[in-house]
Write a structure and sequence with these properties.
Layout lengths: L3 H14 L5 E6 L11 H9 L3 E2 L3 E3 L2 E7 L16 E6 L4 E6 L9 E7 L8 E6 L5 E9 L15 E3 L16 H9 L5 H5 L10 H10 L13 H20 L34 H5 L7 E5 L2 E5 L13
Antiparallel strand pairs: 1-7, 2-4, 3-4, 4-5, 5-9, 6-8, 7-8, 9-10, 11-12
Helix pairs in contact: 1-6, 5-6
The structure holds a DNA duplex (16 and 16 nucleotides).
DNA sequence: AACGCGACCTGCGAGC
DNA sequence: TGCTCGCAGGTCGCGT
């Protein structure tokens, strides 16, 4: 479910509620939610208990919490040593990280409960709730970034990246994102534009909703061959992705139901702003403004739905577009 | 390298 | 009422 804006909403919530606190107890209610932690439940819990959360970092849809195993201020003069391990979270299709008071009943799909050191006016539990279990938590090493830049968006960025996220590219909201690198790699591909936008190794953070929204805004078709894209067109679709994700973030993310919520359980309001995704059979808003009636079309592509306007996002013809 | 597919899961609404 | 089907915001790994 969550794409970059939704994960960033969660990151900001965790900065407010969890940063600096110590994990005091860990309950894994469903081991499937830590299946990516190869060493199992005991190792997972044992390593987390007593760890202090230094920061919350995000690249694309991956979120991780660099950890320290020493109490804050243990060595008053010496600077904080660089963290070596992080708690990784990926929300998959239906994962939620929720701050809850201990008095609140367990959610139906509560999978992992982290108890936190007491903090005035703040809930004492961080809960991982996940209906479909495609997401999960696990521990991962922090390794130097290949380019020496920050691993991702953080309050105090470090040139370290979670090993399990090292294979994905920077996302369009990352200040170190390089359009030139993106464009060169895009042109070298023999594939369609939407497939490329969804490839987290090329550009991260974009999922099925925002890919369709970005393509609509840029007036480009999902099947447009990437090796024919002009620089201006690539820039247009990337800027469109940036814009739609920035707008979604400002609205608190996109949610169609209670499945996607921020750390306080509130839904985002971006659904009403969607121009393409989920609008099958409804008028294309841009065409309507120009006095043209064009109905948005839904097609199967990559085993999922793609929404386009047949008038302003025409399908590329063979060799021409 | 690219692509298609299955696997990993639960739940909801539509249709019969 | 209950059954099956298709569908859902993601990622990973395998075969061709």
């Amino acid at each position: 479910m969550p794409e970059l804006p939704e994960v960033e909403v969660v990151r900001r919530g965790l900065v407010n509620w969890v940063r600096g606190r110590t994990i005091t107890a860990v309950e894994v209610l469903d081991p499937r939610s830590i299946r990516r932690h190869a060493l199992g439940v005991e190792d997972f819990a044992g390593n987390l208990e007593g760890a202090r959360v230094l920061d919350i970092v995000r690249r694309g849809k991956f979120l991780w919490l660099p950890l320290a195993d020493t109490p804050a201020g243990a060595s008053s003069a010496a600077p904080e040593p660089a963290p070596a391990v992080a708690l990784m979270a990926h929300l998959g299709m239906s994962g939620q990280l929720l701050m809850q008071d201990g008095a609140v009943a367990d959610e139906k799909h509560l999978k992992i409960r982290l108890r936190l050191s007491a903090a005035a006016g703040m809930p004492d539990q961080l809960r991982f709730v996940d209906q479909r279990i495609f997401g999960g938590l696990f521990l991962t090493a922090l390794i130097p970034t290949p380019d020496g830049g920050p691993g991702g968006l953080a309050e105090t960025p470090l040139p370290l990246i979670a090993e399990e996220a090292a294979h994905i590219a920077r996302d369009p909201l990352d200040p170190h994102f390089s359009f030139d690198v993106f464009y060169r790699r895009l042109r070298a591909r023999k594939t369609g534009l939407k497939r490329a936008l969804l490839d987290q190794a090329l550009v991260s953070g974009i999922g099925n909703i925002y890919a369709d929204e970005a393509l609509w805004l840029a007036k480009l078709h999902y099947a447009r061959p990437t090796d024919t894209l002009r620089r201006s067109e690539a820039l247009r679709v990337l800027d469109a992705a940036r814009q739609v994700m920035t707008d979604a973030l400002a609205a608190g993310g996109t949610s169609f139901d209670s499945l996607y919520v921020n750390v306080n359980g509130a839904s985002g309001y971006f659904e009403r702003s969607l121009n393409a995704y989920g609008r099958e059979g409804q008028e294309c808003r841009r065409c309507a403004e120009a006095g043209i009636v064009s109905l948005m079309k839904r097609e199967q592509f990559m085993n999922r739905s793609s929404y386009t306007c047949p008038v302003c996002q025409p399908r590329p013809r063979n060799g021409r577009w």
